[in-house]
Amino acid sequence: MPQLFIGLALYGFSMAVMVRAALGLSPWSVLNEGLEKHTSLSFGTLTAVVGVSVLLLWIPLRQRPTFGTSANIVVIAFSSDLGLTLIPEGLALPERVGLLLAGIFANALSVAVYVGARFGPGPRDGLMTGASALTGRSLRVVRTFIEVSVLAIGWLLGGGVGLGTVLYALAVGPVTQFFLPRFAYTSPHVTGSRPSS
Predict the structure, then answer these.
(1) Are 129 and 139 in contact (CB under 8 A)?
(2) Which of 52, 59, 150, 167 sits between 20 and 30 A of 129, alpha carbons compared?
(3) What value does the mean pLDDT of the chain take?
(4) Using a CB cutoff of 8 Å and minimum separation of 24, what contacts does 107-110 make?
(5) pLDDT tens digit string along 111-120?
């Protein structure tokens, strides 16, 4: 269980790092930042609100939340707001580029850590897998459709789209794939992976 919380905390913090880089965000962060411009809620609070809203879409998909799903909403919301409190705004461009690269790397690493803990999908991942099962479309097609849609809505709301958005799309998958086998949980007593709770 510590691996789950470490991964989720790192994920939320990496989101804050990319926000402070101000060079472009991941699709869901673009949506959160866009919503932030139109509400009085913090970035982290909006990640939780969006997460709970996405959970409502699980109902027709017959997906069931797990402990990991709830932890995903709470821990990421808290750690992203904490990161935004600790990291100053208005940094020089070289520092922002460094933050962007560090944020993308940390985000991909964190996905490997919390997915490897095998406590169930987060709201957005569950939406993707549920929609894929319902429609018969591949995970790649469904994920691309969802993230492009989210990115477009977030951009229209004023969320930050830029070079970082492109770099994130290109880098997060390969980096996550590299680290995932190193963090995948396997029981020391039973052959095979631990089932999702």
Answers:
(1) yes
(2) 167
(3) 91
(4) 107/11, 107/14, 107/15, 107/18, 107/26, 107/168, 107/172, 108/171, 108/172, 108/173, 108/175, 108/176, 108/179, 109/10, 109/175, 109/176, 109/179, 110/7, 110/8, 110/10, 110/11, 110/14
(5) 999 999 999 8
Residue 5, pLDDT > 50, answer yes
What is the structure's pLDDT at 114?
93
Q: Are 139 and 78 in contact (CB under 8 A)?
A: no
- What residue has token string 């569950």? 126
Task: Name residue, tokens 């944020």.
Answer: 103
Question: Taking the complete model, does pTM exceed 0.85, yes or no?
Answer: yes
